[in-house]
Design brief:
Blueprint: H1 2-5, H2 10-46, H3 54-86, H4 98-106, H5 115-118, H6 120-127, H7 130-134, H8 152-156, H9 165-168, H10 171-198, H11 203-208, H12 211-237, H13 241-260, H14 263-268, H15 276-292, H16 296-303, H17 307-310, H18 320-332
């Protein structure tokens, strides 16, 4: 109860609500990718390769899954820790269940591929695309996750010209910033690897020495763009105005919160100059958090696990009754 009351402060809102937005973006994307993978598996088994371009689709699914798994794992890791700290000392209690959640989740960062290694599969796939762009060939992937890279010349020529929060909080405008990020980071990553190869390094060491500040950021920006691209399709298909409105706010909050971590790149690539972009991103995030706080409990209830799975005195659906029962048991002991 105290945790939700604390959402009236900007500090608590910023600590918790972006992770709620991320949960929705990832949940919607997971439903989409699961359906794609099931159909891919069926087509592979039945040999249906007439319309779906199975080999290309398989490579794109691999590139997408190799980046969305690390992204989801890292977000979940940070979300668990932030929730634990937001609950103060109560969050550290065994009966809170947060410690068990943290321990159970820890393996997600390494199984099926250690995240920092796995995400290189995505950047390797993207690096193969750039030579085609330089040859002015059309990029057309089965899931359309990288098609926009064909327009990289036009995209990279654009600058940040937004001057108001309302203008920044237009979903298509936010998506265009991510397009620039991906194209810029792809160009810089390719040039970095090429430069390392020209210096005499092997392909292994050229990619290894280009991973930390180039290729890894490229893969992260690429999957963030695709997450938002698919979320925008879901929003456009929503028929209920109230649902569309809250989904749009979740979309914007996740997108801007993630974009905040890319601010140095926006300046490095001279996409933005002066304090405007930073000020607008920060102000927009706080504004969206304040607008979403009243919907937070309902949004959590929609995706919450049943009480017997959560197994926590802090997060039970019947709230204080469980905590009071626990305190009564302590008195008997």
């Amino acid at each position: 109860m105290g945790l939700w009351l604390s959402l009236n402060t900007h500090a608590a809102q910023y600590r918790l609500l972006p992770y709620l937005a991320a949960a929705y973006v990832l949940r919607i994307f997971n439903d989409y990718l699961t359906e794609v993978f099931y159909q891919f598996s069926i087509d592979t088994i039945t040999g249906n390769n007439t319309e779906t371009r199975l080999p290309e689709l398989g490579m794109e699914i691999h590139a997408i899954s190799s980046s969305c798994k690390p992204i989801a794992g890292w977000i979940m890791k940070d979300a668990i820790q932030e929730c634990r700290e937001a609950c103060g000392g109560h969050g550290y209690l065994k009966v809170s269940g947060i410690g068990d959640i943290r321990n159970d989740h820890d393996a997600n960062l390494t199984y099926e591929g250690e995240n920092h290694v796995l995400i290189q599969q995505t950047s390797n796939w993207l690096l193969k695309i750039w030579p085609l762009v330089m040859e002015k060939k059309e990029i057309s992937t089965p899931l359309e996750s990288a098609n926009f890279i064909s327009d990289s010349s036009d995209i990279l020529s654009k600058k940040f010209t937004t001057t108001t929060i309302d203008e920044l909080c237009v979903p298509e405008n936010l998506l265009s910033i991510y397009k620039w990020l991906v194209c810029y980071l792809l160009k810089m990553s390719y040039e970095k690897v090429s430069g390392e190869l020209k210096s005499g390094k092997s392909i292994f060491w050229a990619k290894n020495d280009s991973q930390v500040y180039y290729s890894k950021n490229l893969a992260i920006a690429y999957i963030q763009h695709f997450l938002l691209q698919r979320m925008l399709i879901t929003i456009s298909n929503a028929t209920d105005h109230a649902i569309k409105n809250v989904l749009t706010k979740l979309y914007l909050l996740y997108g801007l919160w993630s974009l905040e971590k890319h601010i140095p790149v926006l300046y490095q690539g001279e996409y933005a100059r002066g304090p405007t972009v930073t000020n607008l991103i920060h102000s927009s995030i706080l504004k969206l958090c304040a607008e979403l706080k009243d919907d937070a409990v309902s949004l959590v209830d929609v995706i919450a696990e049943p009480d017997f799975i959560l197994n926590s005195v802090l997060g039970a659906s019947d709230g204080m009754r469980v905590l009071c029962r626990y305190l009564e048991n302590l008195k008997e002991w």
